[in-house]
Fold this protein.
Amino acid sequence: MFTKALKQSMGLAVVMAALAGCSSTSTTDTAATDSSATASSVDSSAVSGSSMDDSMAKLDTVFYFDFDQSVLKPEARAALTAHAAQLKASPRSVRLEGHADERGTREYNMALGERRAKAVRDFLVLQGVDSSNLETISYGEERLASSSSHEMNRRVELK
Amino acid sequence: MNLPLFRLWQLLLVLVCFTLSSQLRAELTIEITQGVDNPTRIAIAPFGWDGAALPENLDSIVESDLQRSGQFSTIPKRDMLSFPRREADVYYRDWRMLGSEYLLLANMEQTPEGEYQLTFELFDVLSQVKLLRKRVDGELSQLRDMAHFVSDVVYETITGIRGAFSTKIVYVEAFSSERYRLMMADADGARPRVLLKSKHPIMSPAWSPDGRQVAYVSFETGRPAIFRQELASGVREQLTNFKGLNGAPAWSPDGSKMALVLSKDGNPEIYVLDLATRKFSRITRHFAIDTEPNWTLDGKGVIFTSDRGGKPQIYQVTLASGRTERLTFEGDYNARPRLSPDGKHLVMVHRLNGVFHIAAQDMKTGMIRVLTETHLDESPSIAPNGAMLMYATKYRGKGILGAVSLDAGVKFRLPSKQGDVREPSWSPYF
Amino acid sequence: MVTATDPMERYSASASGYGSAVLISVALHVVLLVVVAWGWESAPPKQTQVVPRYVEAKLVEIKPKAEKPAPKKKTVNMAEKRRQQAIRDKQRADREKQKQRAVAEQKRKRTEELARQKKLAAEKAAKEKAAAEAARQQQLAEQRALEQQQLAEQQRIAQEAAFAEALAEEEAMLQAETQAQQAQSYIGLIAAMIEQNWSRPPSARKGMVCELSIQLIPTGEVIHVAVVKSSGNAAFDRSAEQAVKKAGRFEVLRDVPADVFDRYFRQLRLKFNPQDLRL
């Protein structure tokens, strides 16, 4: 019974995430990420200059993934394209931190996190970003963003 | 008539008749095909001691040890009719009435030099014989070790298996996302000692085969890197510094090599580091994830997790030939393999109906048995006597350590600590 | 014979003329005939013994004959003489023939008598023999009958005995079956009690088997336990011994009849062959 409920809630979560990704009213869902994005954008703006403030504030820097997947979702791709443009314009070292949710074994999740981080890196490189500026680190399940939501942990953070 | 000779003939005749008759009477054989495996009932009388109160309660330590093994149940002290300290004080019938099968007595004395001497005796209540009498000596700081020694002797005498009560464990304790500790404690969780404090994650601790060092992954450099640390001195050494993954260190059975995971060549692959020459040899060549290596008993092969088949499964590679074969076929997720000390069982993390459990696969038959009932189980580590295994799980949202016997008959949780406890590694015999 | 001739000679002396000559010749012819007749009679001793009587009888007849010839005329009529001679011859011959016939008859009679007697004797002998034989046969028959009777009796006894034995055997079998059935229920109880007390050590593995030999007394108490076949694992063997010792006493055996107890339960073998081990 527990597993059925789990599957249902997971299914629901996935559907909701898809909706969140697809719909234009995504602001509420990504509120948490926005705050972190704002924080990171503050840092980056300090480096690149105040002219970037407006565009930076809107960019996502956390990208989520489906369970056991390292495929970029469309919204991630959109955000990353923007990032790529920025990075090409003003190159800086970027740290891509890959994570996994806590299900499964730790070292395997390290590899999963790395796969996700590399997916983001590969995309940026395809967009023309210099790969030597991109560093990928995996934290596996060692740095959980949430103790209750699995999907919040399946992420890559762009720093 | 020669009387003694006559008696001798009589005796012979009787013997012949007896043997004949017993031959003639066919003996009935009753077959016993099952048991109930109730724990062996043992009475541990309070250990005798006439000095000042000791910092440790030795008979309680022995009691906890034996009970935790799942093989024993102890008679409560309040039920005991007497507290014998030596053989002369033992009335077997009293103990038999309590339902006790064995009786353990001990008496502690202190030499003028300050050394403590614990003399203990074990009695078989049903057969009414003394099984052993031994003595163990130690200093005040070693009282717990003396008690564990008694537990080991009692356990081995009765079960035939070497006790693992004097072994240790290493584990990671996480207090927050910024506070991590590598800890070492007794197998019962007592006397925890900090091996490493860090703001950054610590992962995958592994005991060296001689029990003198621990290898682990630390993020202290900003990236995961493999370190080894000598327990006695605390001296540390960084072994890897590659980009990408540096993980899952595993000591070879002879302690001369270490298998590990590096993704420096594009994707996670398994390498072997020769600790003397510091040379790396690549073991796997596959675009899939290959990780979590562990050595076979003879040191000639490595078992590991790979998703080259689409989902994580367990494989084995022979180092000399490079020949790789898949070991697990049941379930869609099998990872983190560990072989039992006798090589007959493969313990792993196994997903069943979406839930992660610890399971054991019989290496001969391939049959998988799920051992745990808890959820989000991971990091199984087997005791050096193969009787128990410890693993990490969650209990009420908190990371704790659980233990289960290899036949899943015994289960218990270790007392939880302040932080989230994870990744136990059971020491070898010292 | 000598006496026969002697009277002849005296007659020849006393006769005169033809009368004496005829007498002599007749006598001589008679003698001759007798000799001839007697000569052919080479008879068995018995007959020769009998002969003298006939001879005496003849002599007696002859004497009157000899006295018969009356004195005749001296006229010599040759033809008459011849005729008379012929008559006399004929008469003589007839007499001879008669004599012979008589002799023969007597002989025949004698022979007959002998034969008859012989036959009689034989018959008697035969009869006696037959009787003896009969008696013997009867005795044999009686004996045989007796033997048969005895045999029949023996057979009957044997049959009865066999029947009784078969009956006893069947009874014993039935009893054994009942005993076995009784024992069976107790066996189940004993096994259950031991199983309830058997804790296998952690080193126990599938395939381990050990055998114990135990001795019980009618109260059900175990008075002796010994390992007769080890499993190779000391802890496993000990766990089996402990299981029996923990059970200690099989109270149920108190109700067992003495014969069933002695047959099945005084000395028992326990084979510990676990089928429920996980490892």
Summary: The longest helix of chain A spans residues 2-22. The interface with chain B takes residues 3, 6-7, 68, 102-108, 110-112, 114-115, 135-140, 142-144, 147 of chain A (CB under 8 Å).
